[in-house]
Design a protein that fits this description.
10 helices, Rossmann fold, S-adenosyl methyltransferase, methyltransferase activity, alpha/beta, SAM_dep_MeTrfase_SAV2177_type, SAM-dependent_MTases_sf, binds S-adenosylmethionine, transferase
Length: 266
């Protein structure tokens, strides 16, 4: 059983949080009893949830590698979560030690753990901010000190936007970030869906009782979020089908429970 971590300031442990549930499902220990109970119930109702998380994490790794192959060396990872295997700075700096990474999350546990991990990494930082407030987020001094928006930036919104309800206009939010990006910048999205795995609906239903209610969306809705970006091959596909490679742990595309896409700002 996971040990209970020290509780950083501002953490609400009365409600399960998406960051901590995801951490538990991936085998991490930065979670509390309330998160573990939630995750255990979810895994009972839908054992495939672990595959969904693994397929997503694997997509994230491949997408970061792809961004570097495209010559993009700056990463803004919004909704970055609690550090776990294959963090963006690790994947990126293994390929290019000078790659810069800014992690953003609104869950204090995620940022506390990220800062601890990045203490001796001058090329990466972690910022506590809400994705639904793009102006404030993009104005953050620490973020600005690490990223040069005159150069291409890869914006990662991986397993983030299903936590943004329709009322907060997720496609509109993406446009706010898009508009500050230099040509050649990349947008990486993965987004929960019930397509292929109808049981994901039960998962979304359960998330109503967490701090992060979730809205699953269709392929068409995810495609609409890419407005103003040239969608790169293979298009909007199940996350496990996005440029698969040979590393073990891959799942069948239709088990992904999420769509994935990468686009380029012309
Ligand atoms: C499922 S985790 C994904 C972590 C990582 N991006 C990945 O795909 O491996 C979703 C993360 O989004 C964060 N999140 C949800 N809504 C957010 C918001 N409005 N602003 C910032 N972070 C948010 C949660 O706290 C959580 O850490």
């Amino acid at each position: 059983m996971a040990e209970t971590p020290e509780r950083p300031d501002g953490v609400d442990i009365t409600k399960p949080s998406a960051a901590r549930i995801y951490d538990y499902v991936l085998g991490g220990s930065a979670n509390f009893a309330v998160d573990r109970e939630f995750a255990d119930r979810a895994l009972e109702r839908f054992p495939g949830a672990r595959l969904v998380a693994t397929a997503n994490r694997s997509f994230l790794r491949r997408a970061v590698q792809f961004c570097l192959q495209q010559g993009v060396r700056q990463f803004l990872d919004i909704g970055s979560g609690i550090p776990t295997v294959g963090n963006v700075h690790e994947v990126a700096q293994r390929i290019d030690p000078d790659a810069t990474v800014v992690y953003v999350d609104y869950e204090p546990v995620a940022i506390a753990h990220s800062r601890q991990l990045l203490e001796s990494n001058p090329k990466a930082t972690a910022v506590l901010a809400d994705a639904r407030e793009p102006e404030a987020l993009l104005d953050n001094a620490d973020l600005r000190a690490h990223l040069d928006f005159d150069q291409p930036v890869a914006v990662l919104m991986v397993a983030l936007l299903h936590f943004v309800p329709d009322a907060d206009d997720p496609a509109g939010l993406v446009r706010s970030y898009r508009d500050v990006l230099a040509p050649g910048s990349l947008l990486v999205i993965s987004h929960g869906t019930t397509d292929g795995v109808p049981e994901v609906a039960a998962l979304a239903d359960q998330y109503k009782h967490s701090a992060n209610p979730a809205t699953m969306r269709s392929r068409e809705q995810v495609t609409a979020m890419m407005d103003g970006f040239e969608i790169l091959p293979p298009g909007v596909v199940f996350s496990a089908a996005w440029q698969p490679d040979d590393e073990p742990g891959e799942v069948r595309p239709e088990q992904s429970g999420a769509y994935a896409v990468v686009g380029r700002r012309p």
